[in-house]
Amino acid sequence: MIIVMKQKATLADLSRVIRTLEERGFHPRPSHGATGTVIGVMDAAGDDLTDVALLPGVDQITPVSSKFKLVSRDFQSAPTVVNVGDVEIGGDEFVVMAGPCAVETRDQYLTTARHVAKSGGHILRGGAFKPRTSPYSFQGLGEEGLQIMAEARQETGLPIVTEVVSPSAVPLVARYADIMQIGARNMQNYALLEAVGEQRKPVLLKRGLMSTIEELLLAAEYLMSNGNNQVMLCERGIRTFERSTRNTLDLSAVPVIRESSHLPVIVDPSHAVGHVAYVADMARAAVAAGADGIMVETHPQPSMALSDGPQSLDFPAFVDLMESMRPIAEAVGRRMKVVGDRSD
Amino acid sequence: MIIVMKQKATLADLSRVIRTLEERGFHPRPSHGATGTVIGVMDAAGDDLTDVALLPGVDQITPVSSKFKLVSRDFQSAPTVVNVGDVEIGGDEFVVMAGPCAVETRDQYLTTARHVAKSGGHILRGGAFKPRTSPYSFQGLGEEGLQIMAEARQETGLPIVTEVVSPSAVPLVARYADIMQIGARNMQNYALLEAVGEQRKPVLLKRGLMSTIEELLLAAEYLMSNGNNQVMLCERGIRTFERSTRNTLDLSAVPVIRESSHLPVIVDPSHAVGHVAYVADMARAAVAAGADGIMVETHPQPSMALSDGPQSLDFPAFVDLMESMRPIAEAVGRRMKVVGDRSD
Amino acid sequence: MIIVMKQKATLADLSRVIRTLEERGFHPRPSHGATGTVIGVMDAAGDDLTDVALLPGVDQITPVSSKFKLVSRDFQSAPTVVNVGDVEIGGDEFVVMAGPCAVETRDQYLTTARHVAKSGGHILRGGAFKPRTSPYSFQGLGEEGLQIMAEARQETGLPIVTEVVSPSAVPLVARYADIMQIGARNMQNYALLEAVGEQRKPVLLKRGLMSTIEELLLAAEYLMSNGNNQVMLCERGIRTFERSTRNTLDLSAVPVIRESSHLPVIVDPSHAVGHVAYVADMARAAVAAGADGIMVETHPQPSMALSDGPQSLDFPAFVDLMESMRPIAEAVGRRMKVVGDRSD
Amino acid sequence: MIIVMKQKATLADLSRVIRTLEERGFHPRPSHGATGTVIGVMDAAGDDLTDVALLPGVDQITPVSSKFKLVSRDFQSAPTVVNVGDVEIGGDEFVVMAGPCAVETRDQYLTTARHVAKSGGHILRGGAFKPRTSPYSFQGLGEEGLQIMAEARQETGLPIVTEVVSPSAVPLVARYADIMQIGARNMQNYALLEAVGEQRKPVLLKRGLMSTIEELLLAAEYLMSNGNNQVMLCERGIRTFERSTRNTLDLSAVPVIRESSHLPVIVDPSHAVGHVAYVADMARAAVAAGADGIMVETHPQPSMALSDGPQSLDFPAFVDLMESMRPIAEAVGRRMKVVGDRSD
Predict the structure, then answer these.
(1) pTM, full prediction
(2) How far apart are CA A63 and CA A66, in angstroms?
C-alpha cells in the first residue's frame, strides 16, 4: 500500500497517520520526494485501511500491485533528477563518472582527477574500500583514500562517488562522498541498504552480477522505503556462460528500467567487458541506448594498476572516448555539459 | 595448418598440393578468398609438412595456433566485404535488413517490402521455412513463401535473405535467396553448415542462443573450410537468467568479433529483446557499438502476426528508427546508403 | 487437440477421421501407443471439432492445454517402457549404457565392449558420426564404425546405441543401431527429429546444453507426433557460469521430467561433469534421484582417447562403479539385471 | 604465503613472527587448526621472506599457488570434522538439519522441533532474521525467534543453526546459535564474513546463487583467515536459465569441493528445487553424491507457511525421507546416527 499525503498536509497530520498505522501493527515508511510525501506500508495487501483514508491530510491510498512501489513509474511518472553539485543526473545531460578503480596513492589519484576534469568528465570515481573476492588481495586505502578523493574534489571542483561496504562505515563514507556507491556484491546486503537508505545523500546502486532487473528495482525499493529518494541504478554486466568478456553487459536493461522506473540509469562498461579494447564501443552504445550516464575507469598507467588494470582506459583513450560520445549524445537528444576545471 | 598459395600459382600447382596432401591422409579444404587461395588442413597439428612447403605455388605454411583459422584476423587482416546486389556489407555502409518474421500472405509481404524499400531499408528479410519449438506451431509457407519473396525483390529491387533449415532444402532456398540464413538453433547443425558451405552464396550465420562467440566463429569456420567466403555473423541474443527480455543481447560480441575476425557482424535486436518497446534503443546501440548492420522485424499489423508479433515494429516506428540511426551511423564513421525503390 | 480413438475403432474409422480433419485444413498426426491410438492436431486450439467428435470410433477429444501433448502424463499416465533386445528401459530395471565416446579402432571397441559386458553393462554406446565444434577435429569413422559396433553386438549380445547427425544418414544408422541417439547440439534440429520420428526404432534424445526441460519435451513431441513412441530422454548437463565442471548436471531434471512425462529418463554424468574424478559420484546420485539408467563413458586407455578422454572411466573404475550402484538401486526400488556375456 | 609453525613452537615464537611480519608491512593472520598453527600472509606473493623462515618456531613457508590457501586440501589433507553438541559433521555420520524456513510462532516451531527430533533429525534449522528480496515481505521475528529456538534446543537436545545477516547482529546470534549460518545473498558480504570469522563457533556458509565454487572457497578463506576453522559449506542451487525448478541444484559441487577442500559439504535441496515434489529425490541424490549432510525444510502445515511453503515437506513426507536415506547412506559408507529425543 502507498498512502499519498496531500501537499498541504501538516507534519501533525503525518504523525497521526503514522501513529495510527503503527497502532494497527504496520511498519509505515514515510518518503519525502520531489512530488510530495508518501507512506509505504508493508504487509498490508489484504487489510482494510478505510479509516486511515479518512484521516486529515491523506490524499489517497493506492494498492500497488507491482512488486515494487516507490521505484515504479506507476507511482511517479516524471523521471527523478538527482543533483550533485552542479551536475544533474537523469535530465537532459549525459554524465560521465571517471577515475581509477582504486585510490592507490595521492599522486596517482590527483593526476587522474586532473585529467578527468580537463577532458570534460563530470564526476570522479575511486575506491577507498574495495570488496575483493580473495582476502589476500589489496583491500583499499580506507579513510586515507577518502581524504585523497576529497582533496581531488577540492582541486577540480568535481563531485566524488565512492563505495561503502558495511553498515558501520556508512557515517564515515557519507562524510566524504557526494554519491555513495553500493557495489554489485552488496546489492542484496539489506543491512547496508537500510543504513544507506537512512542517509539523505545520492546513492549509486549497482546491479548484482547475477541479479535480475526486478531484484535491482526491489533493492532500490529498500533504499527508497527507508527514505532516500536520490537513487541511481547502474548496469555493470551480468554473469553468463560467455567468457570472452568478463561479464555480459546487459544493455537492454537501460530501456527496460526506463520503462518501469523513474530512476536514472548509469552504465559501467569497464567492469562489464573487462578488456580495454571493448570499453569505448560499449560506452558509445550506452549513450545510444538512452543511458543517463556512464561510469568508466581510467588510470595514468593501466598496466601498473593495483586492481582492474586490464579494463582501464589510459588518458589518450579517455579523451578520444569523450569526444566520440558527444555527437551520439546529441543524436539521442542529450547534451554533455562542460563542468569543473577546464583550464590547462 | 593453413597453406597459403602464391598469387601466381596455377591450378595445376593447386591440384598437385591437394593431391599430395590427400596421399598423406589429410583432408585439404581449398578456399578462394579476396586475398588469394589458401588450403585448410585438418588434424595436421603435429605433422611435418616440409615437403609440401617446397611444392611449386606454395607461398607459406602457417601453423595456426588459434582454434579458428580461416575466420581469423591472423589469417586475413582486412575486413571481408560481402556484396549483395549493389549493397556492400562489412565496408563503410551501415546496412538495414528488415521485414516480417514470417511470410504469411502475398499481400502482407508485398505491403511490408514496399514500406521497407520506401523507408530506406537495404535488404528484405522473411521466413518461408520456420523452425518452431513446438510441432504444433505455424511452420511457414515453404516454397510458396520463397516465390512471394522473389516477387517482392522484383518489385522493390532489394535483395532477400531467408532461412534454410535442412541440408536437403539448400538447393531450393539457394535458387531464390540472395543471402541464405542459418538460424540460431542450427548454428551447430554441421550437416547443414557443410551443405551451405558448398554453395557460393552469401550466408548470414546466427549465433546460437546457447553458443559462445568462439563456437560461433568455429561454426563459421565450417562454412569457410567448405569453400564459402561470403560469411556474415549475426548476434541475436543469448540465453541468461534475466527474463525481462526474451534473450540478453550480447552487444559486446560486436567489438569482440571485430577484434578476432574479419567477417562482418550484424545485430538482430528484435529476437534478442522480444518486446517492441526495447527494439529501437538496441538498434541504435548496435550502430554505436560498431555493427555492420542490423536485422529488424517490421509488420503491417504486429498484433496480427503469426509469429513474433510482440517484437515487430509497426511502419511508423520503423521509419522513426531509420531516421534516428543515421546521425549515429555518421558519428561512428558510417553512412546509410539510399537504395531500392524510393518513389512514393 | 488430442483425438483419442476407441480401442475397438477400425482402421476405416481412423481413416475417416483423418480425412475429415484434412478436409478442414488440419494436419492430423496419428500415434499408436501402448494405451491405444490418438491423433494430435496442430493449430486447432480455438476450433470447433464437435462434428469430428461424433464420428464413429472417436472416444473423446481432449483440448490439451499444456504445450506438450503426447509426451505428457496427462495424456498417458503409465510410464513408457522401451524394450531393446531383452533390456527393459523405464520399468523396474536400472540400465547401464557404456562404452567409449568414439569408435576409434576395431580393437579398441571390441576390447571395451567385452569389458562392459563382463562387468554387467546392459547396452553398448559408441560414436561413429561425431558432431565436433571444430571442423578440424576427428569426426568419427562413419559406417566403418557402425560395422565395428555391430560386430561387438554380435559377440557380446548387448544392444547398441549410436548417434545420427543428419536426416540423410538416418536410414544408414537405423540399419545398424538398436537405439538411435540424437545429440545435444541437434535437439532442435527439426528436420532430423522428423526423420527419426518416422522410424519405428527406440530413440535416445539428449537435452541441449542450454535447452529448458520444456524444450526437451517439445523436441520429444516432434518425435512422437511423427509416430515414434519409443522415446527416451537424456539429461547430460547444461551450460551455466560454473566452470569447475564441463557443464552443470541438472539432476533435478529427473524428478521434474518424471512428474510431467511418461518417458524414461537416462542420465549421462560423463559429458555433464567432464572430469573422471566426479563421474562415479554423479552416476550414483543419478540412481538415487530416480533415473531409469545412466550412459557412461569407459575406455581401455582414457589418456589415449581421440575424444573425451578426460571424462572416461578406465576399466577398474567402471567395475567399481557398477558394484557401488547396485545397493543404491535396490534402496530406491530398482534392480540391476545381469545380461549379456558374463563368462570370463 | 602460508607460514607453518612447528608443533613445539611457543607463543613467544608466534608473537615474534607476527611482529616481524607486521614491521615489514604485512597483515599476518594466524589460524589455530587441528593440525597446528599457521599464519596466512596477504599480498606477499613476490616478497622474500627468507629471514622470517629463519625465526625460531617456524617450520616452513609455503608459497601457496592456488588462489585459496587455508581451505585447500594442499594445506590440510585430512577432512575437517566439526563437532556440534554430540553431532559430528564431516566424519562418518550423515547429518540431517531440518526445520521450518522461518520461526513464525512458538507453537509452530516447537511442534516442528519435536517432530524433527522424533524422526531422527540431528540439528534444528530456523530463521529468526530473514533476508528478503522485497522490503515489504515478512522479515522474521528477530531475537524473539532466537529465544524460541533456544527453548526448542532445551526441550529436544538438538543443536540449532540460524542465519546472521549483519555484522552488528553477530554477537546476538552467536549467543543463541550452535551454528551460525551465512546466507547465499551474503556470501560475499566481507564485513559479515570477517565478523563471523572472528567468532569461535561453527559456521555454515551457503553458496551464493551467483557464485562459482572457487568464489565459495574464497569466501570460506575469509572466515578461516580470520581464525575460524569450523567452517561448513552448503550447496543450495545456482541461478541458471532453467525455470522448472527455483534454482538448479549443482550437485557436482559435492565431489568438486571434496577434491579441493577439507571442509564438510552440506546440500540444501529445498531452496535449490523450490517445489516439494522434487525435494526428497534430490536429498537422496545428495546422500549418494557423497555429501556430509543435508539441510531440509519441514513445516507442520506447508500451505500456511509465511515463507517457502511450496518447498517444505510436511511431517509424513519428512519421516519417509529419513527412512529412505538410511540405506543409501550405508551404501556409500556412512551411517545416520540416532540422537536427541526419540521418545514418543
Answers:
(1) 0.85
(2) 9
